[in-house]
Amino acid sequence: AAAAVEPQPTPVASLPAAPDDIEDPADAPRPGTDLTAFPDADPQRYAMRTPRADAATSALTLFPEQTGQRAPRGPAVARTGFRGFINSITGGVFKIGPGAEEAAANAEVARRQGDERVIRQATWSRAVSVLVANRKGGVGKTPTSLILGGVLGSIRGGSVAVVEVTDDPGALGYRAEGQPTRGLGELVRDRDEIHSAGQLAGYTAPQTSFASVVASVGPRRELTGDDVIGVSRLIDEYYAMRVMDSGNQPSSSAFRGAIEVTDVLVVPVLNAGDAVLEAVALLDFLRELGGHAAMLADNAIIIRLHDGRPEDPAVVARIDRILDDARPAQIFTVPYDAHIAERGPISLASLDPEVARAFTAATAGVVQRLAHAVR
């Protein structure tokens, strides 16, 4: 039989395409690059940085209602505007198709529903974890952690913990909703005495997104790797997903502990040279460690944030090339959001709709990575 033609990844406009005459040094795709487990994902939503990654399609269409690949329902019919009005008053006799604006809106709704379905329907044989990290401070690690965890919690109906794993108290508790009386420091102290979900809940800040935040509520001692591993194991007994907000020292004990209990790495960056160079340095550092750490780097997801400051096109183009050379698994872009920039408590309901959609797409990408990292 003739060999099947391998589908090519969908290029992203912001990143330069690799020249055709340059050979990929890898002879086989890296682990976790096959994204066919969730056919709902629209390839246009993801910046696939693995040349041999399969397109987000699947032959598993026996039950389309489970995969999100709906059976054809005939030509689309306009429901809004003048076209929709004509269809309405004629009882659908003419079946006029939607105009460009309505068609684009319908496509966006379908993409969002596909992303949400990917997030909602994913299951694993154990609790799974995501580490949000960058050696550079002030690049959006804490907002990214809260929003990723919030999107997961809101779509999946809870069972998501967002956990501080910084060496010293970080900003997670300040950026989260609520003012709990107990937090991470107390949980580290009391973890051997906690034997129920109700007990553990007393150390969290419940969010309107249905996620739960475990952060410092006051001074605490420096976090160690054993602390991170112990708290993570406890949380994993009662939560299906764990998102960790890390500090700026990848050589620290706490960060090394977080690496040990991480399934997928997410690296937020701004369109600034220092933020991106530090992100690439982190990936290089993890690859030098080898083993599990290197696998996290090879399958990392980068989220490009915008903080509202002017961006030099030449710098942005240079950043495109740097990120392309770093070969992360996926890249997502999130536009500026005034609510995030206020530097106060973050609520999903207060995000700009476009930002919420972008983070939902990024979260779907994270879930896909988890699907291939954890069997």
From TrEMBL:
GO terms for biological process: negative regulation of cell division. GO terms for molecular function: ATP binding; ATP hydrolysis activity. Gene3D superfamilies: P-loop containing nucleotide triphosphate hydrolases. It comes from the Bacteria. GO terms for cellular component: cytoplasmic side of plasma membrane; cytosol. Residues 1-44 are annotated as: Disordered. This is ATPase.
